[in-house]
Amino acid sequence: MIRPDAEVSGRLTEAPSGAPPIPRVDVDPFSNEFFENPYPAHEALREAGPVVHLDKWNVYAVARYAEVHAVLNDPLTFCSSRGVGLSDFAKEKPWRPPSLILEADPPAHTRTRAVLSRVLSPAVMKQIRDRFVDAAEVKIDRLLAKGSVDAVADLAEAYPLSVFPDAVGLRQEGRDHLLPYAGVVFNAFGPPNELRQTAIERSQPHQAYVQEQCQRHNLAPGGFGACIHARVDAGDITEAEAPMLVRSLLSAGIDTTVNGLGAAIYCLARFPEEWARLRSNPTLARNAFEEAIRFESPVQTFFRTTTKDVDIGGHGVREGEKILMFLGAANRDPRRWADPDCYDITRKTSGHVGFGSGIHMCVGQLVARLEGEAMLAALARKVATIEITGPVKRRYNNTLRGLESLPITLKAA
Amino acid sequence: MPTIVFIHPDNRSESIDAVVGESAMQAATGNGIDEIVAECGGNAMCATCHVYVDENWIGRLAAMGDEENALLDGVATERQPSSRLSCQIKIEQGLDGLVLRLPERQV
User: Fold this and answer.
1) Ordered structural domains, chain B, with CATH
2) Domain range annotation of chain A
3) Does B71 reach chain A within 8 Å, measured CB to CB?
4) Interface touch B73/A355, C-beta < 8 Å
5) pLDDT below 70 — which residues of chain A?
6) What is the 3-state secondary structure (H, E, C) of A122-168?
7) What would be the CATH architecture of the domain defined by A2-412?
8) pLDDT for A168-190, tens place per residue?
9) What are the tens digits of pLDDT across the range B84-100?
10) Which chain B positions have a beta carbon within 8 Å of A349's beta carbon?
11) What ipTM was reported for this prediction?
12) Are B39 and A290 in contact (CB under 8 A)?
């Protein structure tokens, strides 16, 4: 798998004299085999060196916590405006108009980011908290009445879909486009493999839906979407920018939390001791969710592009190169975490990169935590046991790690 | 090494050695001050590293930015004039002896 003695040749790198060559790793992190079990490859990537070269897609990658954190926190050297997927916007036409926040650099990014930060601020979370908590309790009551359910469709998907579109202020009709649209967005960050090509080919109806729902007249007053459009009146953003920022909520606000919740339930179903600790102390719900984000890293990867020749861990990398960041590998790097492969709901999780880090760190992280805390607290109070009762099926996506199906039986407390 | 004095909600005080250049949040989380949660890891996004700065010290800290000011409106316990986010307090030698009171909760 690893050929640490081989040197990357040609235009790709020019190691400073005396510096060891960048290890080449024969791993395809966008293959079904990898999706099924990324952990041996994550370890190989971390142990190969601070930066590695993936021959399969001809790209550099970092998988250790220190380097992933450093790349995330140096947006001037490692830019986002050339795309945060493998596709380099300087060389290829993006599949959709680039995001004004995710795929932007300062100073342009600073202004749009400030708008979404305020729309999704801690103060706003206080206002929506009760609604989200009530909805979680109602959802668990209904699932308990059924007993046997699919934790993915009936819980991890159903709960966010029951609160987030309303919080944005979306119309009722057409919401079934939301998850497929997000699936396309996150597949499109990957390489031009079948997952990406097929997703983009089928994306037109989903794109049309999203574009229409982002318009001001389709967004209910008081919702996140209307709040974004209100910033046009304040002069903070233009009329053309507002729908694009609403689009960011619809791209990144649902499938991410779906996979975060799915990860948490899958953890609690697999680790009964941690489930017992949560039941005996439901105030651990928020940290149990956070630890599941570290443990499973629902968003596995993002890319940056170098804006100049740089040194990464003693290795030279030229300007204009894509750098793949393995968030999931960083979150289990033993250099940073004690017992990294252990799901521990009392772990000090601060500093994990499951939501990223730095100026592009997930702007919706507070919504995600609110959903996670509300759902896990409701489970802890109302449910005695979570038992996996059927085959667990993984869902394949170029960026998102999660399940297609998790059959469980819930017993009431 | 500047010393920071944290006062827990039960009035117990705990002195820790901080490193110049790190944030008061990092000094706290690195020294087992459990009341500082810091969910976002110091990116000024979550308001879970809230502290009340002792009145003798509040005027000696660098002024807060707009983002911190907006985030403080969402802290879990009451916002007071002495409220700051500890991730935005950078430790320098002149802050030796800084006294920070910890709130009852962060979420």
Assistant:
1) 3-101 (3.10.20.30)
2) 2-412
3) yes
4) no
5) 1-19
6) HHHHHHHHHHHHHHHHHHHHHHHHHCEEEHHHHHHHHHHHHHHHHHH
7) Orthogonal Bundle (1.10)
8) 999 999 999 999 999 999 999 99
9) 999 999 999 999 999 99
10) 39
11) 0.92
12) yes
